[in-house]
Amino acid sequence: xxxxxxxxxxFGVSHAGIILFPLTSEKQMKRLIRSLLVSLLVVxxxxxxxxxxxxxGSHMVLQRRKPVPVWGWADPNEKVTVTLxxxxxxxxxxxxxxxxxxLEPMEAGGPYQLVARGKNNTVTFDDVLTGEVWICSGQSNMxxxxxxxxxxxxxxxxxxxPQIRQLLVKKDLSLTPKDNMEGSWAVCSPETAPxxxxxxxxFAKQLxxxxxxxxxxxxxxxxxxxxxxxxxxxxxxxxxxxxxxxxKLPATQEEVxxxxxxxxxxxxxxxxxxxxxAAEEQTWAKVDLDDSAWKTMxxxxxxxxxxxxxxxxxxWFRQEVIIPEGSKLNKMxxxxxxxxxxxxxxxxxxxxxxKKGSGVREYTVPDGLLKPGRNVVAVRIVDKGNVGGMxxxxxxxxxxxxxxxxxxxxxxxxRVASVFASSYKPGPNTYATQLFNAMLNPLIPYAxxxxxxxxxxxxxxxxxxxRTAFPLMIQDxxxxxxxxxxxxxxxxxxxxxxxxxxxxGSTWAELREAQTMTLQLPNTGMAVxxxxxxxxxxxxxNKEDVGKRLAAEAMRVAYQKSESNPSETSRGPQxxxxxxxxxxxxxxxxxxxxxxxVNDKYGYLKGFEVAGADQKFYYAKADxxxxxxxxxxxxxxxxxxxxxxxxxxxxxxxxxxxxxxxAIPFRTDTWKGITEATKFGDKGQ
Length: 685
Description:
Keywords: Hydrolase
InterPro entries: Galactose-bd-like_sf, SASA, SGNH_hydro_sf, SIAE
GO molecular function: hydrolase activity, hydrolyzing O-glycosyl compounds; sialate O-acetylesterase activity
Pfam families: SASA
Protein name: Sialate O-acetylesterase
CATH architecture of the domain at 269-424: Sandwich
């Protein structure tokens, strides 16, 4: 005996068809029918439930004084009623089950209940406040949690701020726009505050104190990410250079994973002898190693662009160095610029230094280790994710001593020693648009006041292109939300990324310039942090001043705090124009507030350089005369250009206004920089 059941393509069942159940008795058949009917009823009820995306939840903050969209899913053509305070709105879902209503603007207040009711269920969110909502996004310096900030020990125990809440968006990737994400709202307390974005926390604390309204933070950030992964495919197609990249994007996430797996497997198989044993790897620093079968790569540079895309693991690099006879080899140093992430460096088989984390490497070579003739430098690099390799500038890579400098930039031999599992998976920078799709699109069109953004470190190598890529991203976000909300960002702090300056060129200075140029967009503001970074750490622990400076800009840009009173200035001096008087350059500034101020007990201005027509920069003497700066150098008879704070590590700058906001680093020239030729997608990404 058999019972036949025709299953329709409904209620989430993916295929219609006939299922045969062998039965042994009529009683068994009746029991089965009851069970199946109950199961189908459960499926039907579940499918008919009203749902809202996870951007909504208990303890959330809704934007005051703006229309508030509320949206979700239900059965096709189902009536959905949404209630908040005295507002009651009803809408019918579309044929695709999607629905959306818009609540009328409300003043700050609460707590309220937000209720969404359908025919079969009711969704209730408790402890809902109305106030100011800000997106917090970018890379690791925005992601950086309060527990790791310099003031964490004193700040966290007193972080009792029930009107400050955070929605932490879980990290995710997608090549197509998602309509939901994982995350939940948390009320700020000593138990939850350690996981708040530190910059966002101090920003919210300052704003809450000034506005006396609830503050909601939506923290969607991911360390080490490029701006292009936060930009939609639609926007990239509007950009001549980025359109090429967008056209090469895989169609599905499955294709991404497949490509990564195939690429990494092919890489390992391409090595003549595959991966080494531990004993074999120990021989790779030796001078007499036969590396003729090793591949070559231009160094320095991110190895993801040089032949190891999406690769995380261990790679050895070797370079043969020929030293001329008669060379004086006293006090020799090996300089490599920045390495990402960890290195162990050998000269002629001897370990001369190792370091963990990104940053400049300068290792002393023991006297007598180098010899005239053939020598070998070997570097073992461990990369745990994102960028990998020797990533400084060519000028930083050399062997140098008292009377000898040997450039080492160029082709190096390399070989993979081990592959980490993360190599087979796509990373956030593997392809553009992924974080926009997975971590931003699900938030749209949640009503917000604006965005605070801390990113740019990962784009420094393509700083010139950031002049267009960053404004493009801002306009992209505004287009999707449908209004030109305030967008506030942090200018890169001082950090010795690769000893860059006016003589060698500085990628970080060029990135800061690109950020300053973005202020041409309406409703933007920038917090300058050149004075509060850390020379050897890309993650400054002082997040409190960053948050406060962003809050000051928010009061100006978002809340129209008047600047007619100079004491209410929210930003530092910005270069206006230069005139030349003999051998001196005279500089004037905007945003001087109550006047320019030199933050030095002796009154010495630092960070200024001047150049003539030969484009060679010299450290300059700078004098404060009223609200002007007069700059000169004995070596420059006729100044053509002045630069201020033009270096990776520009922490010596000390020009402020009386309100203690630092001046924006700048240059008066437009001479070609070192990042103009580097574009996103040059290596096929």
